Amino acid sequence: MHALTVQYLTQVLFERGERELTASPSFTDARESWANPTTLTRPRPLQPNEGWYWDVLADGCGLLWGGCVESLVAQVAAGGYLPTSDALEGTMLYLETSEWRPAAWVLAYLLTGFGERGWLNIFQAVLVGRPQVWHYEHSLTPAAQVAYRKEQRETIIGTVRRYNAYIPIVQNMDFGHTDPQIVLPSGQQARVLASEKRVFLSY
Question: What are the transmembrane regions (predicted)?
């Protein structure tokens, strides 16, 4: 496992308290078949990490709520398992996408649904994991990978800003379907000091 992944697994399993996040200098989103025994010992190629993308220098604090976009779309469609607006008071939204690479309009529709419910005026911040662009069967060229990530970032910002001009949005974070991974303590406290470009999680 990557050293950063081990660090956050150790924190969530054996430590308590608030920890400041640090962005990994490199990452990978390549996957190999677990049916091949060499997968466990063969390092995957890494590429430089561009760091976090920030929008609006405001601070936020709240309990983490969210998950994988594809799963949340199903939850919103069903409607039966969603929290109430009152239950979301004082929360912070986190999102990430899988190797299926949902189109940008899927994120726009999901966030529009949140906005029309008034939730984007409830959330204290929006944290977004780095999108995985690698896929077993449908690979993208390096240029197309860059374009996909850029379109997703711009779509998230554009949709959220139609409903809330102030909450901080932090994207390209090390959680979700890429490696190394931060372990997000869903339901626990997070703080975003956008004025200092710092993020803290409580374990």
Answer: none
